[in-house]
Amino acid sequence: MSPAAESGAPRDRARPARGSAPRGQPSGGAQNGSGGGARSSPSRRRRGRGSGARSGGAASAQSGPRRSGSPGSRQRASGRAPAQTAAELAAADARWAAATAAIRVSPAETRANRRRAGALCAAAGVVPGAVVGLAVALTLSLVAGAAAGAGVLVVVAVLVWRSAARIALRVLGARPLPEEEAPGLYNTVEGLCPTFGVRQPRLMVVDDAVPNACSLGRGADAVLVVTTGLIDRLGPIELEGVVGHELTHVKRHDTVVSAVAVTVIGPLAYLIGSDRLLHAAVGRGRELRADSVAVASVRYPPGLHDALETLVTTEAALRTSLFAGRRHLMTRWLWVDPTVGRRLQVDDGDLDSTAVRIAALAEW
User: Which of 40, 138, 198, 339 would you label with 114, given CA atoms 20 to 30 Å apart?
Assistant: First the structure.
């Protein structure tokens, strides 16, 4: 017997023989499914367990694509034939792009509206420029008259461009709207402005029981005008639809055209008692266009439809109302409901007619 065995060192008794399993655990061969398989060192077993876990995870990841992948990648990874060809997918993408383009405001729309507003401003300076130019030409010379007429035209056009919004607000009789008077409206406008990508407009109110709304102004100076009747009669969902409609006008720069048209064409509409020229100046079909963009952008698309139905079922405007007198002809085609007070005088084929737009919105 060796001295080490005679001494009975605890170290030798506590440590198991090389390759044997600790108490209560099966041997390495049993773990591998064979009674007498080749023994492996503890370090190799540790590496085997770690690499097995890692390789198992990798194998499970490679065995099938992740659920968040595209349908095409899942079909290719699983070996199945794709359900759609590349041509069909491209055609579907093209149809989707065409459908979404119809509900987005393009830069071409905003440029066209600004050109329209500029043309109206120039038209406002034609008559005074011609009168001054003719007077100067008869007094001095033709060249001096032409220069004087052009200068007057430019000055008048710039003055109209800069002061049109203030003049239109005076025609409407609007006053600033305190936030405590309509907290729900302020909250709705603040929440929708990032959605439409516009700055928050100033809010003003017209003291009138007829529910209606319009928007005026240039860019950061845009103003959203509502009546007290609109605040009192519409619920949150309906109010969201109307605000989305007006923010679409701000996005498209319809507000610039509206203010200039009221300033330039409004007095003529008041004098002749017809607003056909005003309708042509602001652009036909723009209310229906604003409806389509608004309902595609707000959270509750049926809200605008319900709001317009509420507006058309209101009682007739009183004599003292803004919407009853001839003054309404100066601003009629600015409002979300332009037919109030004159519903029987609107052609059913007019795209800006409230009844036509309600029928179109019923499909949403």
Answer: 339
Residue-wise pLDDT for 5-50, tens only, equals 444 444 444 444 444 444 444 444 434 444 444 444 444 444 444 4
Residue 54 lies in a domain: no
The tally of domains found in the chain comes to 1
**Residue 309 domain-assigned (yes or no):** yes
268-318 confidence digits (pLDDT tens):
999 998 889 999 999 999 999 999 999 999 999 999 999 999 998 887 667
Q: What is the pTM of this model?
A: 0.72
**Catalytic site residue from 88, 181, 238, 246:** 246
6 catalytic, yes or no?
A: no
- Contacting residues for 22 by C-beta, under 8 A, at least 6 apart: 16
Domain that holds residue 199: 174-361
Question: φ, ψ for residue 95 (rounded to 5)?
Answer: -65, -40
193 domain residue, yes or no: yes
Half-sphere exposure of 105 (CA within 13 A, CB side): 26
